[in-house]
Amino acid sequence: MPNVGSLKYASIDIGLKRIGIAISLGLGIINPQSAILRKNRVQASNDVDTFLQEWEIDVLVVGFPSASIDMQNRIKHFVGLLEFNKTIVFQEENMSSIEAEEQIKGDIKYKRDGRIDSLAAKIILERYLFSVSK
Fold this sequence. Notes:
Structural class: alpha/beta
Strand content: 15-25%
Largest sheet: 5 strands, mixed
Helix content: 40-55%
Distance between the termini: 14 Å
CATH class: Alpha Beta
Number of domains: 1
CATH architecture: 2-Layer Sandwich
Number of strands: 5
CATH superfamily: YqgF/RNase H-like domain
Radius of gyration: 14 Å
Low-confidence stretches: none
């Protein structure tokens, strides 16, 4: 397995209206990106694919809920639409959105602009990178 620090990672937090995105291009620094507004699955999967290509991502970490079988199936279906042909891993996302809301508390208009979604994606990627660096 290549050195974790030499790979480019992205994570996505797939929601019904927005897809949060975060990236790590090395050195353990994780940056949330602008969320993708989701009009439909095809548009959203194309936008995710474009993002992954533009940033030359090596590993995609997908937030995966343990509590909802329905959302697990939706996420698996969405990931199946992606043309990304590199490594895809699923990471437990339990409470990441709530944790993101806590971090951004006090900010007005945060609900609809995707910042929480991308901050949740950042938390998901932090959890994944922590687990593989042990």
